[in-house]
Amino acid sequence: MNLPKTPRRTTPAFGFSYLERALKDCLRKREFGLVDKQNVVDFFGQLEPQPSCVFCGTKKGVNRWDHFVAVMDYGSTVAGNMVLSCASCDDSKGRRPYEEWMRGTAAMSPTTQGVSDVEDRIRWIKKYIAEFGYVRAEEEHGLIESEVRRRAAVRSELAKLEKEVKSLVEDYRKRTGNR
């Protein structure tokens, strides 16, 4: 009998990485409404009928919006940085630069999937980014000096809290033998 995999343990590092992502996401421009989404669909509709994954071209399971520049790398949720993606491509790409990933040998990259028009797709993506004028913002873009200091203080407190949580978990594991 094939049973599903046991869920992975949620670690403190995983939880705190989500807090960092939330902080970065909330301190970035987010302007991606219905009109913006339709503009993206229309732009790539010139390449192939929509909805399809910009990376591999599949029309099956295209149910995600992917950031070219990941939120964790200070990407914004705006036209020019957002494209339709299938789950396989979105999960495989992660934070990798899209060109490197598309041409690379990572599991489920367009190259390893056997997508024949990877270079054409990369050209369309570059055209799309230029069309919408997307430029990756620096970490402190849009923040005033007092906000930069507050963010640094929050990160310092989170680092202390993460260390304390990890210590608690380790102490519990040593005491109980529960791994």
**Strands, total number:** 4
What number is the mean pLDDT? Answer: 93
- Helix and strand run: HEHEEEHHHHH
Proportion of residues in extended strands: 5-15%
Tell me briefly what this model is.
This protein is mainly alpha-helical and 179 residues long. It has seven helices and four strands; from the N terminus they run H-E-H-E-E-E-H-H-H-H-H.
Structural descriptors:
single chain; 179 residues; DNA Binding (I), subunit A; two-stranded antiparallel ribbon; 51% helix; flat
Tell me about this structure.
The chain is mostly helical and 179 residues long. The protein folds into two domains: 27-138, DNA Binding (I), subunit A; 143-179. Helix content is 51%, strand content 8%. The protein contains seven helices and four strands; from the N terminus they run αβαβββααααα. The protein has helices spanning 12-26, 34-45, 87-93, 98-103, 110-113, 118-132, 145-176; strands spanning 30-31, 62-67, 77-78, 82-86. Strands 1-3 form a two-stranded parallel sheet. Helix 1 (12-26) runs antiparallel to helix 7 (145-176). The radius of gyration is 20 Å and the shape is flat. It starts with 11 loop residues before the first helix and ends with a helix.
